[in-house]
Amino acid sequence: MAYVALYRKWRPKGFSELVGQEHVSRTISQAIASGRVGHAYLFSGPRGTGKTSTAKILAKALNCEKGPTAEPCNTCESCRRINDGSSMDVMEIDAASNRGIDEIRELRETVKFAPTMGRYKVYIIDEVHMLTSEAFNALLKTLEEPPPQVVFVLATTELQKVPATIQSRCQRYDFKRISAKDIEARLREVVDASGIAADDEALALVAREADGGLRDALSTLDQCVSLAEERVTEELVREILGLVGRESVLRILRALAEKDAKEVLAAVGDILAEGKDAKQLVTELVAELRAAMVYQAAGQPEGVELYETDEVVLKETASLFPSESFLPMLRALHDALAELRWTTEPRIAVETALLVICRLSSEEIPPAQPTGATMQRDSKDAGEKFRTLSARLEALEKKIASGAVSVSPPTSAGTARQPAARGTAPTRIRTTAGRPGGPVSGAGLSAGQWEKTKEGEELWRRLLDGLGADQEQKAVRACVASGVFGGMTDQCFCIRFTSAFLANRLEKDDYRNILEGYLERLSGRTLRLIVETGEISEPPRKPGAKRKEPAREKTAREVVAALPPEDREAVAQVVEIFGAEAKVLPVATAGENKKEERPSTSEGEGPPITDEDFARLTDEMYIPPEEP
User: Fold this and answer.
1) Which CATH superfamily is domain 6-176 in?
2) Homologous superfamily, domain 430-533
3) Pairing relationship of beta strands 121-126 and 90-94 according to DSSP bridges
4) Which residues are within 8 A (CB) of 100 and not within 5 positions of it... i.e. 6 or more apart?
5) Is 402 exposed, middle or buried (0-12, 13-18, 19+ CB in 10 A)?
6) What's the pLDDT tens digit per position in 311-352?
7) Which of 28, 170, 186, 219 could be stapled to 42 by a disulfide with Cβ–Cβ 3.0 to 4.6 Å?
8) Is residue 187 within 8 Å of 7, Cβ to Cβ?
C-alpha cells in the first residue's frame, strides 16, 4: 500500500477531533441535532486550520446511516465512501482550477438531480475567492434557493475577496489560528500513536513555527521523521526549517547590548556563511526581543505565546536591555524586514539595521540620571560659554558705537520702497539663485542697469533667427519674440516681458535649457538667462514720425452700422446675445500683419495672430497665484 502523509492519515473524522475550533464544532453539532441545518455555509480562516475537514465531517453527519447525527459512525458505507473520496454525493470542487462561468453553469445543471445513496448532495467549493465575477453572479440564484437536498460549503483563506452578495446568502464561520500549545498536544498524540520517538523540545519548535496551521505542523513532522535516524530532536528540526538557532541569536543580542559593532558584523557573517536566510535571522531576532520585552514587563502571562519558553534564557535576554530600548530596536528590525522584500543585497540590509541598533543604544535610549559631579561639570562649561559670548557681544557694541563698523538696515517686506524713476514701472527680476552653478554676476541688477551693447543686439537677432529656422522650436520662438532684449553682462543675458504669463513660461526648465543652449552655441561662452517683467519702454521715434495711437474699442452697434446691408443680418443674433453696447476688440487684418505672418500648424486653424496679440491674450489669461 502506498504511503499516506501524516496530515491525510490523521485528518479529523468527527467534530470532537477538531483541534482549536471548538466554537465551530459546537455550533454545527447543535444545528444538526436540532434539525436546523443551513443550505449554505462559508468557512474562512488561515490555511491548515480545518475548513475542508469540517466540511467533510458535515457531509458525513448529514448522510450517515445513523443520522443525521452530530457524531458520524465512520463505519457505514456512506461514511467510508466520503472518507476515501469516492462518494457520488459529495462533490469537492477546486475553485482555483474551475473558476469560470462554464463550470458554474454545469454545477447548476447537476444540482437538480437527487442524491445517489445519501440524504443530501454536498458541494464543497475550496478557495471560492478564486471564482470570477461572472461565475459568482451565475452562482447567486442557485446559492440563494438550492433544491432541498443540496448543501453548499464554501471555503476560503481570503474572505475579503468574496462578494458581499455571496456572504449574505451563507452562514459564516471564522476559523482561527490554532495555538502552539494545542498543536504540540496533537503532535504528541500523533507520534505516540505512530510509534515515533520525538523530543518535547522538537515538537514545541515544530508547533511554534507552524504559525497556527496544524497541517503545516504535521507536514514538517513528517519530513523530520523521514530524516531522523532514531528520534526527532530540536537540532534536526532547526536544520530542516533553516532556523538560525538560539545560540547565534543570543550572540548577536549580547553584542548589541555591549554596543560591539565588530562582534555584531562577525556574528552575521558566520550565520550567513552557514547558508542561513537573512530574513529568517531578522525574524528570529524580532521574536526573541519581543519575548524579552514581554517577560521584562509581565513575566510569562497566561494566554500570551512567547517565542522563547525557557525562563533562564528569558531572564538573560530581558536583563541585557533597558525597557526604553525595545521600541527603537524593534522598529529598526521591522524596517529591515520591509527592505528585505525587494533588495538584492539582503546582507547589507541586515548589517545596516544592526549597526543602527548599536547607534540607537547609545544615542536614542534615555541616559541615566546625572550624578552631582556631572551636573557641576556641565554647569561650569555652560558658564564659560556664557562669559565668552558676553565678551564678544560687548566688543562688537563698542565698534558700532565708535563708527568702526557700519550696519546697513536689512531690506524687508515692511521697508518702504524708493519711488521709481518717472516713466518706468516697478520691475520684478527673476534670478537663477538656487540653480546648479551658484549665483551669477549680474543676476541682481535692477531694471535699466543692463548694458545693451551691439554684441548683445546681434546675439538677440541671431537667437530669434536660429529659433525661427528650427521647426521644432516654433513655440519657444513665439514666446521669446514677445519680449525684448534687456541687456547682457559677461555671464548673463536678460529678456524683458510685459506679460507675467510668458515670463513664467520662459523660466520653466524646458524652455530655459533650450535658450541657454542656443546662447552658448551662438556666443561661444556660457550665459545664464535672466527674465524680467515690467513695462517695456518704446524705442525712440524718428524725427517727424507720428505716434501710433492704439485702436479704439468699438461697440457692437458701431460695428453693425459699418457693415454692408447684406452682412448685417448675419450678426444680428450676436448683437442680440451680447448687447448693442458690448465692446469689440480690434483684430489685425492679414494685410496689417503680413510681415509677422506665421504658417498654421494644421489645417482649419484660421489666420495666425501677431506677436503683440499673442502677448496680450496670454497676459489676459494669466491668473497670478494667491499670496500665502
Assistant:
1) P-loop containing nucleotide triphosphate hydrolases (3.40.50.300)
2) DnaA, N-terminal domain (3.30.300.180)
3) parallel
4) 132, 134, 135
5) exposed
6) 788 888 888 888 888 999 999 999 999 999 888 899 999 999
7) 170
8) no
